[in-house]
């Protein structure tokens, strides 16, 4: 049991480090947005919604339109026109 917990934590730490290394540019672009986060958070999800909707796959599959329709039907949390989405939490692992 203890070995499983340690392996899970190592995997999680490795994933987080890899994520931060590949997405480090968001810090510079999102620094203004991040000042609104509480000091005690240790997990942050930052999504460039506007950029996401401009990707070839999103254009091909009409994500923007589908997201707007899903929000109107109360099936999505991102209202139309959102450019950046930030979600934070304090995880106890």
Explain the overall architecture.
This protein is of the alpha+beta class and 93 residues long. The chain has 5 helices and 2 strands. Strands 1-2 form a two-stranded antiparallel ribbon. The longest helix has 21 residues.
Features:
93 residues; alpha+beta; two-stranded antiparallel ribbon; 54% helix; elongated
Dominant shape: elongated
Order of helices and strands: HHEHHHE
Q: How big a fraction of the residues is strand?
A: 5-15%
How many β-strands, per DSSP? 2
Count of helical segments? Answer: 5
Summarize the structure.
This protein is an alpha+beta fold and 93 residues long. Helices cover 54% and strands 13% of the residues. A two-stranded antiparallel sheet has the order 1-2.
Describe how the helices and strands are arranged:
Elements: H1 2-22, H2 25-34, E1 43-48, H3 49-52, H4 56-60, H5 63-72, E2 84-89
């Amino acid at each position: 049991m203890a070995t499983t917990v340690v392996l899970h934590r190592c995997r999680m730490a490795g994933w987080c480090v890899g994520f931060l290394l590949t997405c480090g540019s968001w810090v510079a672009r999102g620094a203004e947005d991040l000042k609104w986060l509480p000091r005690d958070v240790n997990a942050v999800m930052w999504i460039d919604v506007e950029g996401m909707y401009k990707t070839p796959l999103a254009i091909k599959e009409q994500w923007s339109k589908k997201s707007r329709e899903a929000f109107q039907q109360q099936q999505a949390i991102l209202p139309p026109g959102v450019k950046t989405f930030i979600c934070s939490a304090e995880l106890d692992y």
